[in-house]
Specification:
The structure is a single chain. This protein has 14 helices and 14 strands. With 397 residues, the chain is α/β, with parallel strands linked by helices. An eight-stranded mixed β-sheet has the order 5-4-3-2-1-6-8-7, with helices on both faces. A six-stranded mixed β-sheet has the order 11-10-9-12-14-13, sandwiched between helices. A hairpin with a 2-residue loop joins strand 10 and strand 11. Helix 10 packs across helix 11 and helix 11 packs across helix 13. The structure holds adenosine-5'-diphosphate.
């Protein structure tokens, strides 16, 4: 079966067409600047060069139409419309309602709408993607795969904030966690690579990309993760603060005379390694270059980022009563041996020993610890689209 995987944002839409049997990507692409001037679709059919079509895309319905046209057109198309057996949608927030992927029906749509105020930027965009696909492909089954679902196994003591309990009861204010599809995929893959039953393993997954989070996976179940009610909590990220004292918000607002929206923008878009480096960059490639060339801001940003990762690894080792393997994934985790080394240099206390030669690896599965290391260190590239396609196939075959 051919599965179309859709990751719909407010002005962008990423897609992949995946063959469920071979698990090969048949075509992948991106619609950019939906609803904005200068919109375009960029896609790469398997074995062909990248194709870019600049064309107006006033809304997501048009974007989906263009995706289907890209997949089916005579010249570069890879399938006919009736070959697309199911669509898998990445949904950011499933609240407490969704602990696993589900086939989309009216009730599911309503439930996703109901938790939209927990992810006001993401869930409405995800819903637009679902509705646009329903219109363009009536009768094709669709599946919702939630970023929060994998973390729903967290115990109460990990997901509650130290707030009055009534806020949890009234509004569902608690820690949910994100990147769940990635944490789930990487932890399962790590167990396969290690040749062990995941039930017997204590794993820490470090998803270090532009957005970044760590999770503690004990016996295959997530018992804690660093993101919270929203993806702002936890690690220092590309442009997000991660953990800060909430009083900082009021302090900055008063000093700089800012509105809630303005301070939110600062916390989400102007902070993290971008802010710490005095706006040098949010991209670790630039920061790595800066660090090696003696740029103080770059050093400050990367060292502070790495220290926070080490603290979380320490905390999660304590939470699980030990750790068997630490997995690095996503853009930075998979590609930056430089940043991995700075993190791992802080892990002597658990007997982690880095194999520096193996650590030069980029973007492929590799064990990067020495044989005598007390904890296995590994690079496990994530594949959220494949994980979504697998769930979709399992529910629609
Ligand atoms: P997201 O999906 O959260 O946008 P990714 O997982 O794609 O992010 O990670 C993007 C980040 O990965 C980039 O901002 C960049 O900092 C980092 N990155 C990608 N390639 C490299 C590399 N070769 N070396 C260092 N960092 C890299």
């Amino acid at each position: 079966m051919k599965i179309l995987v859709i990751n719909c944002g407010s002005s962008s839409l990423k897609f992949q067409l995946i063959d469920s049997e071979s698990e090969q990507v048949i075509c992948k692409g991106l619609c950019e600047r939906i609803g904005i001037d200068g919109s375009r679709i960029v896609y790469t059919p398997e074995g062909k060069n990248k194709i870019t079509v600049e064309t107006p895309m006033p809304d997501h319905n048009k974007a989906i139409e263009l995706v289907i046209e890209a997949l089916t057109n005579k010249e570069n198309g890879v399938v006919s419309l009736d070959e697309i057996g199911a669509v898998g949608h990445r949904i950011v927030h499933g609240g407490e309602k969704f602990t696993k992927s589900v086939v989309i029906n009216d009730e599911v749509i309503k439930a996703i709408e109901d938790v939209s105020d927990l992810a006001p930027l993401h869930n409405p965009a995800n819903l637009i993607g679902i509705k646009a696909c329903q219109k363009a492909m009536p009768g094709v089954p669709m599946v919702a795969v939630f970023d929060t679902a994998f973390h729903q196994t967290m115990p109460e003591n990990a997901y509650l904030y130290g707030l009055h309990y009534s806020y949890y009861e009234k509004y569902g204010i608690r820690r949910y966690g994100f990147h769940g599809t990635s944490h789930s995929y990487v932890s399962k893959r790590a167990a396969e690579i290690l040749g062990k039953d995941i039930k017997d393993l204590k794993l820490i997954v470090c998803h270090l990309g532009n957005g970044a989070s760590v999770s503690a996976v004990k016996g295959g179940k997530c018992i804690d993760t660093s993101m919270g009610l929203t993806p702002l909590e936890g690690l220092i990220m590309g442009t997000r603060t991660g953990d800060i004292d909430p009083s900082v918000v009021e302090f900055i607002m008063k000093k700089e005379n800012l509105s809630v929206a303005e301070v939110n923008n600062i916390l989400n878009k102007k902070s993290g390694v971008f802010g710490l480096s005095n706006e040098l960059s949010s991209d670790f490639r630039d920061l790595e270059d800066g660090y090696l060339n003696g740029n103080e801001g770059a050093k400050r940003a990367v060292d502070t980022f790495a220290y926070r990762v080490v603290k979380y690894i320490g905390a999660y080792t304590a939470a699980m009563g030990g750790v068997d393997a630490i997995c690095f994934t996503a853009g930075v985790g998979e590609n930056s041996g430089f940043t991995r080394k700075i993190i791992i240099d802080g892990l002597g206390f658990i007997g982690a020993s880095l194999n520096e030669e193996a650590n030069t690896v980029r973007g492929k599965e590799e064990i990067i610890s020495n044989p005598d290391s007390k904890v296995t260190l590994m690079v496990v590239p994530t594949n959220e689209e494949l994980a979504i396609a697998r769930d979709t196939y399992a529910l629609c075959k």
